[in-house]
Amino acid sequence: MNQQASPSLSLSNPHPKGVNWQQKAALALFGIGLLILLFAWLGGQVWNPFQALLLALGLISGSAWWYARAEYGGKPAGIKNNAVMFRSLSNRGLWGWIAGVMISGFYICLYWYPETMKGLIEMFEAPSRALRGQAADQWFVYGSFYTLAVLLMGAKFIWKYRHNRYQVIRTVSVMFFQLIFSFLIPAFMQLMHQPEFYFTYFWPLKSEYLFPDKISYLTQKYTHLGVFLVFWGAVMSFIAVPVLTYFFGKRWYCSWVCGCGALAETAGDPFRTLSDKSLRAWRIERWLIHSVLVFIVLTTLLAWLNSWQQGAILGDLSQGFSKTYGFLIGSIFSGVIGTGFYPILGSRGWCRFGCPQAAILGIFQKYFSRFRITVNGGQCISCGNCSTYCEMGIDVKAYAQRGQDVVRASCVGCGICSAVCPRGVLRLENGADDVRERAQYARAFHIGEDGVKLNDH
Amino acid sequence: MHIVIIGNGIAGTNAARFIRKWSDYRITMISDETLHPFSRTALMYCYMGHVRQRDTQLYEAHFWAKNRIERLLDRVEQVDTTSKTLLLRQSGALHYDKLIIATGSTPNRPDWPGQELKGVQGLYHLQDLEGMEQLSQGLQHAVVVGGGLIGIEMAEMFLSRNIPVSMLVREHSYWGNVLPGPESAMINRHIIEHGIDLRLGTQLKAIEGDKQGRVHSVLTQNDKRIACQFVGLTTGVSPNINFLRRSGIELNKGVLVDEQLRSSAPDVFAIGDCAELRRPASGRRPIEAVWYTGRMMGQTVAATICGQETMYKPGIWFNSAKFFDIEYQVYGSVPAINPAGISSLYWEHPDGKKSIRINYESESLAVTGFNLMGIRYRHEVCEKWILEGRSIEAVLQQLSLANFDPEFYPKHEQELVSLYNRLEQRNVQLQTRRSLTMVQCYLKSKV
Fold it and tell me: Which of B50, B60, B320 sits opposite A385 (nearest CB)?
């Protein structure tokens, strides 16, 4: 088998049963919807921008629903991972690379060449006026697409995991927070001539919420509400994060609330197998994510020092840090690479290697949290499904096969390892009384690591 | 000291791993299947495209060098127990100080006419998977013979590629010699729900081929013909010990071993599927070809070899499987038909895809086994209840401790307690709520 070229690089899938005719038709309609958007983006004249937008989004939504129906409808509920490893898009095949380049390209235009998106932005003029009371811009376009992707692919995900109540509730949660807190409320606040504020993002992910200039802007321009918003951000960063993480692990945020997580858990689901499970990747992960955390802490401290000194000495340095962080981390890492490379690095590249919020949550989760994944005695058969489907690249199997609880800083608690396990071996838990010894070897006696005890070795 | 292990399945690999953990002996593992130990039970998921071959490997590649475990891709032709030498097909003679035989099984091939045709095979080795992969190209219909764990796996595999499957099951219900009636009936329904042509009470008479020697149909005992281009033979496995016939090691169906897993020859041990215990623990079979016993035997033999004589004590029986979408777990003794003196409390969900069975002694009420379909129970808790001989009523009071289903799943403990109260005219109350802390308290308490 190994001598053959990877089937995923072939345009015609050698496992033709992977995709049926309904799905092909749905993909075609999806493509037409995308083409309409692309046409407008490239400056093509559409008869009526808003009607064209409705048609495009209607085609995209309808075809996504049809695709999911053809994939999961009419079949008994259960794990639906057939042919995942044969599909070009989800297996770093030709379509995967094409998708990766397209999405990265979209981010590059969005960040640095928004003027190219004029036609596309025009399509969103009417909804932007209605929702925010102001002209559309590239960020409104981006937010709309983002939210639509979370809702559509979230619905598909719920269909796929309809037998698993944890997955259904968790997905409804990320869809809810994305739609209400990351899309509608910020828009509504603008409509009411208030600041565009995201209640579900806080320092250090939304680092400016604790920067001195943002704080003075909010408190001076919006007085009472501004003070509340600053207070809210500080409470979330310094009180909610440690307290909620102690009780539930970082999952309360990363796979239930966060918008980045929302996209990863829905649109990113087909790419979860692409995360690198090797020890080497784990090592890179620890260096990289903590470096980003140090970077943002330094940037924030410098900003405050600079503000305290009235910009006398550190003005340029602080500015430089802030700009570099925004360019390298905010734009390139979280956007172009983090999302653009879904089909290459998997859906959690940013969350795993870059997100400073995840770094803080992870430190709490590892050293001071009730959360862990427990292993069911000796039932593991080392099949590898858990590790394969871990979006964070955790080699869950390495723990499960020796009966050891999984306590890892990076685990976002999505629960997919537990869902795909064919022997019912893994369970997400918030246990109270042994926070210090969670990571120790199995409680199972003759079946665990220390079942047979020898001295002196 | 040179330890040589023939076979790198879970038994052999676990033996190697623990010998390294506890000693500095030289370790060599020989296999003619692959250099990379993998999970045999996951072969189906490779075919179905759930995982890649490398995802099923037991350890990352660097593990072997780091732990100084030498691996040989070769086949052992002969074992000379007097000179302690193996004869390998490629690399010639190899001396051992201690030998562990962990060669696993081969699929049974009863004497069916036509079983040598191209397109007829079992599913055990990596090479069988590759065979299935090749034969799947253009396959119109597959027939699977056997109503056990591998048979249903094979059916699921073909179904994942939309290849129609007929399943011939000799018994009158799927896995009817192991599963109690209602559970077996549940799986029958589930197999049919998935669109498999399930033929119960049907035996294979002959396999028929064309002039090129390829299978084109099977004939059943009642003279029904099914056209097919693939026949899967999944009627059990037998120890893979043919290469030992002239070694002088005492054999029966498998390599006969004592409680320390020693064979009749000095410094020769046997573990896993190929080992046959001379005196199995009560209620256990002399050969248990399952993943878990192989793993435990590997660990046990490692301890003995590293100087701590250790008896093989598999403890309370457990096993698990997944039948399409329905997970199955068993703890303790749950036979197809209860012997006299054993009662069952059986609850089934109205959707017919979940059930819980608790067996207990009718007199003493001590629990003896748990059978779960579509429900996960915590291994250690069930095991301890059985070890302690807890009464069914005490178990029912604490039943939530065993619940291992994911969060937010519907809980069925109360339904089980109510059912018991109704049937037995009792008034047992569900007491404990599910919590990890309570589970740990219970598990840490002395028996």
Answer: B50
Residue A17 predicted with pLDDT over 80: no
CA distance A121 to A104: 19
Fold of the CATH domain A369-437? Alpha-Beta Plaits (3.30.70)
CB pairs under 8 A between A and B: 183
Q: What is the pLDDT of residue A449?
A: 41
pLDDT band with cut points at 50, 70 and 90 for residue A439: low
Partners of A169 on chain B (C-beta within 8 Å) are: 408
ipTM of the complex: 0.95
**Whether residue A11 has pLDDT greater than 80:** no
User: Considering only CB atoms, which chain A residues are within 8 Å of B50?
Assistant: 79, 81-82, 84-85, 385, 388, 420
> Which domains, ranges and CATH numbers included, belong to chain B?
2-106+238-305 (3.50.50.60), 120-235 (3.50.50.60), 326-444 (3.30.390)
In B41-97, where do the E strands start and end?
69-73, 76-80, 85-88, 92-95
Instruction: Answer whether residue A433 shows pLDDT above 80.
Output: no
Residue of B nearest to A457 (CA): B22
**In chain A, which residues have their Cβ closer than 8 Å to the Cβ of B383?**
377
Choose among A85, A445, A446: nearest Cβ to B49.
A85
Strand B165-169 and strand B142-145: pairing? parallel
pLDDT range class, residue A440, cuts 50, 70, 90:
low
Contact residues on chain B for A164, CB-CB shorter than 8 A: 406
Q: Under an 8 A CB cutoff, do A443 and B440 touch?
A: yes
A456 touches chain B (CB under 8 A): no
Residue A283 forms contact with B (CB below 8 Å): no
- Report, as an integer, the average pLDDT of B436-446: 86
pLDDT at A12 over 80: no
**Per-residue pLDDT, B433:** 85
- Delimit the domains of chain A by residue range: 17-243, 369-437
pLDDT digits (tens, 9 = 90+) for B346-377: 999 999 999 999 999 999 999 999 999 999 99
What does the alpha-carbon distance between residue A310 and residue B426 come to, in Å, rounded to a whole number? 79
The shortest C-alpha distance from B30 to chain A (Å) reads 21
Split at pLDDT 50, 70, 90, the class of A13 is very low
| Chain A residue with Cα closest to B43 | A383
